[in-house]
Structures are given as C-alpha cells and as structure tokens.
Specification:
Blueprint lengths: L1 E6 L5 E5 L4 H11 L6 E4 L5 H12 L3 E6 L2 E5 L7 E2 L12 H10 L1 E5 L12 H9 L3 E5 L2 E5 L7 E3 L5 H11 L5 E5 L5 H12 L3 E3 L5 E5 L7 E4 L4 H14 L2 E5 L7 H9 L3 E4 L3 E5 L8 E3 L11 H9 L4 E5 L10 H6 L3 E5 L2 E5 L8 E3 L3 H13 L3 E5 L2 H4 L5 H7 L3 E6 L3 H11 L1
Parallel strand pairs: 2-15, 3-14, 6-7, 10-11, 18-19, 22-23
Antiparallel strand pairs: 1-23, 1-24, 3-5, 4-5, 7-9, 8-9, 11-13, 12-13, 15-17, 16-17, 19-21, 20-21
Amino acid sequence: MKQYIIKGGTPLRGEVTIGGAKNAALGIIVAAIMANEPVVIENLPDVDDVHVLLDAIEGIGAIVERIDTHTVKINGALISNTSVDEDAIRKIRGSYYLVGALLGKYKRALVALPGGCQIGSRPIDQHIKGFEQLGAEVTIHHGKIDASAERLVGEHIYLDCPSVGATINIMMAACMAEGRTIIENPAKEPHIVDVANFLNSMGANIRGAGTDAIRIRGVESLHGSEYSIIPDQIEAGTYMLAVAATGGDVYIQNVIPKHLEAITAKLVEIGARVEEFDDCVHVSADHRLSYANVKTMPYPGFPTDMQPQMTTLLALSEGTSIVTETIFETRLKYVGELRRMGANITVEGNAAIITGVDGLTGAAVSAPDLRAGAALVMAGLAAEGFTCVDHIQYIERGYENFEEKIRRLGGNIDKIDAEDERAVRKFKMKVS
C-alpha cells in the first residue's frame, strides 16, 4: 500500500498548472459514446476515475484510442452491449452517467450501481424520476439500475433538489428524446455547462445550462466533435487554500477565475491576498489568517468538495469559525484525523466548530475520501514535523500528479510503500 510522507513547515511558492475538470470529464467521456462518429476529447485529467471509465466504455464495445496522456479519441459506433457490469465502475460515482447515455441512444441500459467516496447518502431518486418522466421503466435489482423504453418523449421535469448527477443524466437521455424537455431547478455547476456544451458540439440542442431552467430539443443522432475540457475548479481551490495554509505565494495557472469566486471571497475575507488574471489567480499569505463562517451550498455557493480543505485552513486561523455542511451528512468524519494533528474542532450535527490553533503537528493519518485526503496532505504541509497519509488511492482518484506538483512548489512530499522503512529514513535524511 502506498502512502504520502510529508515534512511540513515550508511555504509553497512558484507556479502550478491546473488540469482538466474530473467531474466534467466523467460526464463528457460517457456522452461521447452517444455519437456514431469519432470524438476527440482534450485536456483530460490523468486520474484513476478517468481510466476506470475509459476501460468501462471500451468493455461494452466503444473504440478508445489514447492519443496522449491528456487526449483521447472515442467512437461509440460499434457498441454492442448496453449491460455494464464491471467491478471497477462500482468504485466511481460517475458510472451512473452510463444509464442516461445508453438509455438516450439505445433506449436500454443495465448498469451496476455506483460507489465512490463514502461521504454520505447520494440517492439516485431524482435520476429515476427524470428517466420515468421521459417514458422509461426503471427498476433496481441485483445491485444494478435497469432502464428501458420503447421511446423517450420530452417532458417538463422539476428536480426536487439541484442534483448534479441527475441534471447531467437527464440531459443526456433527453437530448435524443422526441420533442422538447425542460429541466427546472437543475444544478448549475461549471461542469454541467461543460457537458452541455460538449453535447451541443456533437449536434445536440441544449440551451440554458447554468441557469434556472435547461431547455432541450431532441435530435435523432449526434456526430463527431473535438472538445477541450474546462479546468478543474476543485483542484485549483485546493492549491489556493494550501498556499494560504502554508503562508506561501503561488500563481495558479489555467483556471477560470469566475468558477473560483466563492473560494476567493472566503480567502479574502480571512485576510489572504488573491489577484485575478484572465486564466490565472495569484494567492499569497504572509501572516496568520482570521476566522470565518462557511456554509456549503450548490453552485455558485461554497462547494462541498472544498469543505475539508477550508476546515483545515480555518483550524490554523485565529479565532473561532463554524463550517456547516448542507450537502452530504457524513462529510465531517475526517475531523478526527485533524484532531490527531492538534486541531481543535468539535462536531455538532452537520457543523464543525473550529477554534484556531497556533500550529499543527505531524502525525500518522488516514484519508477517508478524496477531498478529505487532499485536506490532510494540506495539513501535513502546514504542520511541524512529519506526517504520513494512508489510503492515498482516494486522492489519486481526483488529483493528477499531486505529489509532483507540490514538490515543484517547494513542498517536501514523497510517495512511498507504507512498509518501506528504508524509504522513510531516506526521505527524512533528504529533508532534514
């Protein structure tokens, strides 16, 4: 088993380039199989979730050509199987997008129920509601989602909550349904807009993504396209907060500053400096930061995927802060790991009450999920002494070359075998 070993106390400095958005990539990869012509996708993040999904669509007959690390060509013309029963895809949440894509194109889908990080209940009732309103019959049996329809017909669909997954799934199914579909109360996240733009580049007719209502006029077929994925706002936000936590000074390149506004606003509120450029943000902090109250909300609110990183930063800030999680009910379970490093955090229901401490100390901790794992690495970079982070397979699901990018910023981090004592000694000698 691999782990990160970190020597904290060094401010991050320099430049880091952000990769393509993982959450957009998962929807776009699946949407690509809806065309019967080659589709080229660029700026693809080189992360585990993407590799798993590419293998899954290849397994049902899609032709997948990996042109380079960040570019792939997909052709869904030869798909012969609408049943996806891969053990691997159970580990990623984005596997459920296969239902919407296959249902839209073939009017039939049988897909294993998804997995992903265990951060709370993520029901698929809104997905099912949307499919059924379009005319599909949907059942769940033997751990699979079974959806089928003689025909799909556009409908007026109101989502009870702005679910990202349901919005993308219904959007994919509806873009090849007969007539017009309106999705009310959809999610508005940047990757929703990116998936819609990608579908439109293949000939779909989708308007209003990112607004209160998405209007879709169904088309008979989709064609080939070339498309570049947007930058990852969560990867960018993670580096922004890590820079602030370590008292660093970094230019974060290849970003869309508008997507980062909620994160930027909180950093400025607690005393960090943030400069925005066309495709870059410059973050610096040369003093201890202040307290804030944070509540996670659907976009454009503060993202739930940045909650663990923000909690970690506030644990090092002055005063008392409250972070309230409104999206996933068990997303604060990493707090015990931060306490091992000296954080003063009390959890009451879905809120973390944080009393800032002067500093954290290194410890052996375990990543419970993707974003909390990144937050623990961030804590290790700010802490005094050495930190070991286990279960880094969660982190590698969503961060490309994480330790390499941190090293380029001056952070002392390495990936080693957990049982390799010699590697631990070698690292400690190198950074001492």
